[in-house]
Design brief:
This protein has 283 residues and is an alpha+beta fold. The chain is 27% helix and 30% strand. Bound molecules: 5-aminoimidazole ribonucleotide and aspartic acid.
Length: 283
């Protein structure tokens, strides 16, 4: 393969230049980090499973009209995505109290919130991604009113959809994190799309009956094999065979490559909406 230029390397992914200037290749690493990179391990199979799970969920979201950066899967570790300008905000949606919410407010883990909670964090590793308000976002110009309104609306729809999808396979969607990116059209119109990834690295997923955790908390809290948890999620979603793709703790590469009939058929069907076309409602 021709040498590709690396654009950016993060904790769990690498971005390479894509085949044309509007695209980027997103490579899923096997690295797992927690507590802002303090804890680190390389876990065979994690990248393959996240690539697969995220491709699937992004495709499903496209199907209900949520625009995403996802174009298509390339191979077991890589996907082609639209090149976007990432908005430096992490939106976290919570249905059940866990993680930093419990720590900050002294709540008991597992408490069901009477309405889903949307939180904003400023994406800045040096500061440990601090919690911020909508006003910070506007005041510091990280996003404008149109964008903020659109991001929150999309986050609610994603939550409703994924809640149902996971409930249908016996999992509770406790919380998740979303990132959005900007794309400009030919005439300068602005589109917002869902970017980054949606995988057990950035969702909390518990068994509906036992509350067993199948997400990155397995690693954060040393609860058991991380990749087995992710594999369980992929199996329940019907993305890998029932007997899994792990062999003796590492990925069966041949089997993983052969799973390549991934959801690419929607790649060309796009429903972007010019953000400036409508007036913002009061926040
Ligand atoms: N998250 C937040 N920053 C990075 C990630 N991955 C995700 C977590 C969790 C949710 O956002 O994986 O699903 C809330 O995280 P926390 O730590 O604020 O409780
Ligand atoms: N991914 C972040 C980190 O490396 C946060 C987390 O998931 O806990 O620390």
């Amino acid at each position: 393969m021709a040498r590709r230029r690396k654009i950016y390397e993060g904790k769990a992914k690498i971005l390479y230049e894509g085949p044309d200037p509007n695209t980027v290749i997103q490579y899923f690493k096997d690295d797992a980090t927690a507590f802002n990179g303090e804890k680190h391990a390389v876990i065979a199979g994690k990248g393959v499973l996240n690539n697969r799970i995220s491709s699937h969920l992004m495709t499903k979201l496209e199907e209900i009209g949520i625009p995403t950066h996802f174009i298509r899967s390339i191979n077991m570790r890589e996907q082609l995505v639209r090149s976007v300008e990432i908005i430096p905000i992490e939106l976290v949606v919570r249905n059940i109290a866990a993680g930093s919410l419990c720590k900050r407010l002294g709540l008991e883990e597992g408490e069901i919130l009477h309405k889903p909670l949307v939180e904003f964090y400023y994406k800045k590793d040096e500061l440990g991604d601090p919690l911020i308000s909508e006003d910070h976002i506007i005041t510091f110009g990280w996003a404008d009113h149109y964008e903020l309104e659109e991001m929150v609306a999309m986050a609610w729809r994603v939550n409703d959809y994924l809640n149902g999808m996971f409930a249908g396979i016996g999992l509770r969607l406790v919380d998740f994190k979303l990132e959005f990116g900007r794309i400009w059209g030919e005439h300068g119109e602005l589109y917002l799309v869902l970017a980054d990834e949606i995988s057990p690295d950035n969702c909390r997923l518990w068994d509906a009956k036992t509350n067993e955790k199948f997400d990155k908390d397995r690693f954060r809290q040393d609860l058991g094999d991380l990749v087995e948890g992710y594999e369980y999620v992929a199996k329940r979603l019907g993305l890998i065979p029932e007997d899994g793709i792990l062999k003796g703790g590492s990925i069966n590469e041949q089997l993983a490559e052969n799973l390549d009939q991934i959801e690419n058929e929607l790649a060309e069907r796009r429903r972007l909406r010019d953000l400036k076309a409508g007036k913002p409602r009061k926040l």
